[in-house]
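Technical annex, item 7. During the second reporting period the consortium partners agreed on a shared format for inverse folding records so that results from different sites could be compared directly. Each record opens with the tokenized structure and is followed by the designed sequence. A conforming record, contributed by the partner at site C, is shown below for reference.
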């Protein structure tokens, strides 16, 4: 749930079932230990930063730098999802709701799409087989606390003697 959007209203963000299956162990862990679902590689919650960004922005910039792919941003994903939904034949109102776009006309203001069609729409996007073969897919909890290569040394994982 996005608590405050550009319109000032909260809104849900539908997730593809591929991601829901992968994220479920993180959600379950968060419920058990009463900590935030998403945490830094060191297991700490991302801190809220006025005017946005903060730890997540640093994480994205670090991933860009390490990968050498500098011409990518979170907005690249929005364009990719938008294009994929159009190619998959998703109705424009559903696509707009998924992406959280403001309406061009008043008719959209009175259109309220239930969650079920939004979830069906996002699940029309294909999941490459190669993604399912990635090592983190089988054990998301085991991989959740690992630092990405080049991000620093974890002192808490060293053997104590």
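Designed sequence (site C submission):
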């Amino acid at each position: 749930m996005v608590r405050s959007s550009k319109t000032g209203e909260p809104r849900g963000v539908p997730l593809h079932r591929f991601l829901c299956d992968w994220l479920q162990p993180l959600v379950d862990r968060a419920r058990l230990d009463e900590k935030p679902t998403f945490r830094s590689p060191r297991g700490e919650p991302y801190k809220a930063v006025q005017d946005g960004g903060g730890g997540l922005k640093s994480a994205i910039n670090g991933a860009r730098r390490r990968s050498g792919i500098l011409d990518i941003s979170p907005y690249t994903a929005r364009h990719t999802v938008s294009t994929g939904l159009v190619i998959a034949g998703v109705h424009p109102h559903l696509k707009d709701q998924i992406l959280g776009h403001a309406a061009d006309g008043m008719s959209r203001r009175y259109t309220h799409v239930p969650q079920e069609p939004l979830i069906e729409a996002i699940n029309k996007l294909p999941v490459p087989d190669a993604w399912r073969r990635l090592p983190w897919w089988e054990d998301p909890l085991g991989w959740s606390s690992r630092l990405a290569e080049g991000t620093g040394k974890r002192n808490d994982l060293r053997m104590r003697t």
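Residues 105-110 have pLDDT under 50 and may be disordered. DSSP finds eight helices and no strands in the chain. All partners now use this format for quarterly exchanges.
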